Amino acid sequence: MDNWLPTLTTATPTEGFELAIKLSRMAIKSTQPDAAVRDRLRPDYAEDADSLIAVSQVVATNFATIAAANDHWRGSR
Amino acid sequence: MDNWLPTLTTATPTEGFELAIKLSRMAIKSTQPDAAVRDRLRPDYAEDADSLIAVSQVVATNFATIAAANDHWRGSR
Amino acid sequence: MDNWLPTLTTATPTEGFELAIKLSRMAIKSTQPDAAVRDRLRPDYAEDADSLIAVSQVVATNFATIAAANDHWRGSR
Amino acid sequence: MDNWLPTLTTATPTEGFELAIKLSRMAIKSTQPDAAVRDRLRPDYAEDADSLIAVSQVVATNFATIAAANDHWRGSR
Amino acid sequence: MDNWLPTLTTATPTEGFELAIKLSRMAIKSTQPDAAVRDRLRPDYAEDADSLIAVSQVVATNFATIAAANDHWRGSR
Amino acid sequence: MDNWLPTLTTATPTEGFELAIKLSRMAIKSTQPDAAVRDRLRPDYAEDADSLIAVSQVVATNFATIAAANDHWRGSR
After folding, report:
1. DSSP letter string over A18-46?
2. CA C59 to chain centre
3. Between the CA of residue A18 and those of A22, B30, E74, what are the distances in Å?
4. Cβ-contact D9, C77 below 8 angstroms
5. Per-residue pLDDT band at F75 (split at 50, 70, 90)
6. Does E44 touch chain F (CB under 8 A)?
7. Using one digit for the tens of pLDDT, what is the confidence trace for F2-47?
8. What is the largest CA-CA distance in chain D?
9. Which is nearest to B57 in space by CA: E31, C39, A50, D34?
10. CA-CA distance, B24 to E43, in Å (whole number)?
11. Percent of chain D with pLDDT over 90
């Protein structure tokens, strides 16, 4: 695998949140590498309230890590 | 995406809690960008006890991050 | 919304635990503002073992945040 | 409610783990105060693998908090 | 209960991971003390993908605590 | 069990993420040591959206631990 995650540092919280979403997707990609299968599964979660909430939970967990890595962007406001 | 999250700093814990709710919703919006679909799903979770508890879990996770970013608002009381 | 959460500081761990429960409920209230609906849902979770465990998980997550905010009440014993 | 949680400090990790279990139960008790209902629900989770795993998750979350409060009992061994 | 958890300190991350698994099991044992029932439930989770993932989540949570207690074994490599 | 986890230190966040995936799998392996059973279960989660999200949650939890162990690779960028 290429070095797709060279750093956890981002310029803004917004970019940190985007990175948290990316991490969530990369874990799924690692478990199910077949893009065709992932595409087929998409409606199963994108149109299901509980699945969307579960995705939101994973993003929240990853965002905590990225926020810590950026000292919570305390200099930004 | 615009810079919707310029900072994690809030004036009070109450505002921090509001921001935690916003983060939870933005992760869902990112996975399901179609507002019509999200509106259609709303009764699935807003009238389901387990879904509401799951939402509450996501908010709790995001609130932990925001509280840390604000040094737990230790100066407030 | 009024400033219902002016501080995370509490005098004792017991009061901190009570606050953790309150945070868990406020997130649900925010998602389902209709008190009548929330009352109708109550038996769905208050008489269901898995729902009660899930509530307990949310409280545990919020209690971690409040305990950190109070430096774990290290002066109390 | 009486001051049932005067401190998070315990003498040993073993006692801290016991306290984590107590916290998990107190959150359930707070949501379902009726002891008769809780007793009736007991077989629903005590004889269900997924429920037991979920209880274990709550205990793990509370144990993290208590361990932090005790500086992970670094002096013990 | 005997003092089964005298310390969170382990010599290596590998041993810390083993301890995380032990903590996960002890919480279940505390909720369901009857070994015969636990044995009967074993196939319910050991042959179910979602249950195994849930166990893995509990272990991850406990491992975070143990890793923190050992300062992440920073001296080891 | 051999010393399969000698350190939590990795050179890059990418390698840390790989290690988080490994930890997630090792917990499952510990609960279900039979490789034939694990292989048989694979389609149950690799082709199920909710299971994949749950795996992603476990990886996120383990990644938080590994990121902390590496001081969030703050020197990298």
Report:
1. HHHHHHHHHHHHHH---HHHHHHHHHHHH
2. 5
3. 6, 9, 30
4. yes
5. confident
6. no
7. 999 999 999 999 999 999 999 999 999 999 999 999 999 999 999 9
8. 42
9. A50
10. 36
11. 94
| C-alpha pair distances (Å), B29 with each of A6, A38, A64, B33, F30 | 27, 19, 19, 5, 37
Q: Choosing among C15, C29, C30, C52, which should be mutated to test the B contact, i.e. which has the most B CBs within 10 A? A: C30
Look at the block and give the residue holding tokens 């810390």. Answer: E16
| D5: Cα within 13 Å, side-chain hemisphere | 28
| In chain C, where the domains are located | 13-71
Answer whether E touches F (≥3 Cβ pairs < 8 Å). Answer: yes
CA distance F14 to F4: 19
Concatenate the DSSP letters of all residues of C59-76 into one string.
Answer: HHHHHHHHHHHTGGGTT-
Q: At what angle do helices C49-69 and D49-69 cross, to 10 degrees?
A: 10
Enumerate the residues of chain A whose CB falls inside 8 A of the CB of residue F14. Answer: 1-6
**Other CB atoms within 10 Å distance of the CB of residue D29:** 17
Pair C10, C70: CB distance under 8 Å: yes
From E2's Cα to the closest Cα of chain F, the distance in A is: 25
In sign, the C-alpha dihedral spanning F42, F46, F48, F52 is positive
